[in-house]
Amino acid sequence: MSTKGEQKTAIFGRILATLLCTAALIGCSTDMPRTNVLTANGGDTVTVMDFSEPLSLNPISPGWYHRTFKRHGPMEISQVERDGKAAIRLKTQDSASMLYRMVDISIDDYPNLTWQWLIEQGINANFDEMTSEGDDHPARFFLGFRDAEGEERHLEIVWGNDVLKAGDWKHLSYFFGQKSFPHFVANGGRKNEGKWFSEEVDLAELYSELWGDAKGVKLIEVALFCDTDQTDASSIAYFADVQLQKR
What we know:
Layout: H1 4-26, E1 45-49, E2 64-68, E3 76-82, E4 85-93, E5 96-106, E6 112-121, E7 137-146, E8 152-160, E9 169-174, E10 179-188, E11 197-202, H2 203-211, E12 218-227, E13 234-245
Parallel strand pairs: 8-10
Antiparallel strand pairs: 1-13, 2-5, 3-4, 4-13, 5-12, 6-11, 6-13, 7-8, 7-12, 9-10
């Protein structure tokens, strides 16, 4: 049986790992190759992630990037058909990683991010998802933006666990409370597991709420992110039909 001191050390280690991971994520754009970047072709819809076609992971398909972390193994990635729908299946077991699609698309022109997702196994852990030590979600989008002056900002769209529900915000502090990382909750809850949901989020609206006028802002990266590295839990999520659409 672990002592209280050992438990406190473990919790502190989780919090420190979360803070370091958050800082690394926010500063990671320049570390990743931006080749075969997806751009808009003038149509009403841009397909960002289409899993009806094979996606190579080794080597990674052009325009994609799989970001892994040193302290934990990566999520398990497989392409499947679920309920007649071509999808990607992301499974974690005390693990985390991020599957990026490199894009360069104006959210003036294409503000609406749409997708479908299904949570087969949510996170069952005795941790507060509002804290750094409980900051695990069975499904997330990690989104990177660049404004007209070249400044980059990031946010996440997540599936809430037990507390967070659709429309909520979660802000986690880092750099000793000097900065805050935003998470917008698009859906969540154990009662909603096992069902496909179609979602639509106005990225320009979210950006404006956080940082002001979104005019001239481009979306530069979209990542699927599943993690249970803080809570030592497990999860299974499916994503399909990730698109950007005109208003």
